[in-house]
Amino acid sequence: MPKYADIAFPTAVRRLFTYEIPENLGEVKLGVRVWVPIRNYNAIGVVVKVHEEVPDFEVRPIRKVLDVTPIVSQEFLKLSHWVHQFYFSSWGEVIQAALPAGLNFTSRKYLKPKDELEINLLSKEEAEVVKEISVQENQGYDEAKKRWKGTGLSKTLNSLIKKGFLEIWEEPNLKVSIKTEKEWNWVEGKNHKLASDFLNTLDKEPNKWQKALKVLTEVGLPKKQSELKSIAEFSPHTLKRLQGEWITFQEVEAEIQDLNLDFDPGSIKSLNTEQEVAFRRIAESLGKGMFSSFLLYGITGSGKTEVYIHSLKKALESGKGGIVLVPEIALTPQTVARFYRVFGDKVAVLHSRMTNRERLHAWKALKDGTKQIAIGPRSAVFAPVQNLGIIILDEEHDASYKQMDPAPRYHARETAIMRASINNAVVIMGSATPSMQALQMVKKSKSILLELNKRHAEAILPEVKTLDLKEYKSAKKGELAVPLFMAIEEALSKKEQVILLYNRRGFASYLQCETCGHIPQSPECSVSLTYHKRKNMLMCHYSGYSRRVDTVCESCGSNALTVQGLGTQKIEEELEEFFPDARILRFDKDSTSRKGAHAKILKQFEEGEADILIGTQLVAKGLDFPNVTVVGVIDADTEQAFPSFQSTEKMYQLLSQVSGRSGRGKKTGSVFIQTRQPENTAIQYAKKHDHKGFSKDEMSFREELFYPPFSRLITFVLKGKKEHQVSQAAHILRGVINRVVPDFDVLGPSASAISWINGNFFWEVTLKIDPDKGAKYIEALLEKVTDIYDLESPISTAVVRININVDAIR
Prior knowledge:
It is a single chain. By secondary structure, the protein is of the alpha/beta class. Helix content is 33%, strand content 23%. The strands form 8 sheets. Strands 1, 2, 3, 4, 5, 6, 7 and 8 form an 8-stranded mixed beta sheet that branches. A 7-stranded parallel beta sheet has the order 14-15-13-16-17-12-18, with helices on both faces. It has a 6-stranded parallel beta sheet with strand order 19-31-30-22-29-28, with helices on both faces. Strand 28, helix 18 and strand 29 form a beta-alpha-beta unit. Helix 1 (74-86) crosses helix 24, helix 3 packs across helix 5 and helix 20 (647-659) packs parallel to helix 21 (681-687). The protein is globular.
């Protein structure tokens, strides 16, 4: 009975392709990469299913298997299939997102003469081209076309490909090799005792190689070359002299992820009563080996990380592995340091600022079980941790857990929950300001709430003061109201540190009244209107509502409407002028663009080499600096102006999180929030550190308008070169959705928040569905919508592309 394999490719095409498994290939395992013919070339795909179901169409054979062992596990195939369905991406795109460079199947095309090609059957020109390609190893297809373009041999090249004399193959785009080093050990029959006995027979001062041999008896073997390099007695000459007679080497994988951190497993802190109660609940589930989801709600500075560490230790003691997710690369250095101190070389770090080789080494170390803990941002949810027992999402509310572009547009929180469920593992979502989605999970008994309500040791929550910028127009130092300016001066005089936040979102320009602080809102869906300078329009990016830019404030009648926005760099320049003796660091996307910049800046600040840290929302997230006593928010209104139903929630979270950076040690902290809307709900609740009160109000608002978590948003983003075509396609799509699900709420079509980029126009249509609908339902619904649209729309998807974003939240 012939066998067949279903193959996934890393393209936007969501279907699988079936191929025959030739007998000469033997067993083809799930999760291996293969070369298969597709159209007129040989492409790389991954085997996701092996079966004996005879297709009702002609199939072609697999040409070659690239891997001896699967590069992805069956557990991962199950998870990736769910992501493929739920987030409506291709299965191959999901697999591709999980693999490091060197093992992925992003590829380039190259030319190869057909096996056993008889040159005498070719014309003179054909033989010339084949000979040229044979000489060039892995001759690139695109390079060959370019090389012979405009010559007579261009047609010859195409003819050879058409006749099958030349084949087009794919190869992995990035070839990343594993770095190796020598590991020295005793030759067979020798050991440290024999070496010691030999040295004792010497009747004169030992020479260099004998001194080196003595050191080997003391340090012990095996030892890697990198470990011997720092010992004075060893040199290439002494090693060569000892080689063969006393020692020999083998090439082993080098440890290139040298974290150079303190390792002190005894430093693990004991838990206080609240932490112990939370840990015991988690340990109970770990002990039973059953899936459980926990929401660890702990105020800033309450010691959530200690609960994570004890839970992870418990998992490792039972032979399980773990994943720790952090929302930003910026948080990775501090987080890794805390976990490394307890777990040492069991930790592997995965993030995009690492080199391809570093990522490949870390990935392989996790896959072969030499490391048991993966730490990194959202993509680390796919890390190949063996025998997974626990997944931790620190700051679970953070927007960066949602992948936007490219596909798959997954959310790490939902994906982590599904992966934990597949593995009968525990997932812990931790936050001082839990998302509405996480709170709803608790309400529906899908997650267990654990609370930490006290700060550790002597630390107390800081006092929060609001500064109404309408009242400080003439009492400001640049962008700083006088009270904040004076607080900074006092902190600097006491050798204390200051953090300043300015969360400028560059694309979301907005109008604000300088007299009353009002920001124009959409009358249809309660989100702020975005200012579009090109069109001189105010637009809502949910309902499609738009109007000409206001000339007077609709709230108070003032004509003092201004477009808001400036950058952290300008504020940094002002601070240098006002505090010439202060050492200032800027922490934003520009200043952290280079590899290692995050860690360098944070280390400087942590070690007291700077007095003021100014930055975007990066400075609000999970950083722990005991000497920080003043935190200032330059303009809290920027978050409220973001055109989203989540603006108030994000504003509250940001203010609460940045407030938590103050007073984390023994010193009392103060927080100053500058705003033109001091009565704003988010600000009022942030002042009182009252998340429960805020979430109750926010949930009421969301339920009334059927926003998440009471619905799930699916946004269709349409992109094209001509706006009238994009707009037309968006209206056609809206009509199709209305027919497929006539009882569902649909928003739009409307121009996107960023409506024009690099010559492309963007429009959106958003569908609200029942949040309890699963992957199969979502996939079936979206397949029906896209099938009908493709059948009926006069506008080709090649002209107007449609990207689908399930869980369209930020």
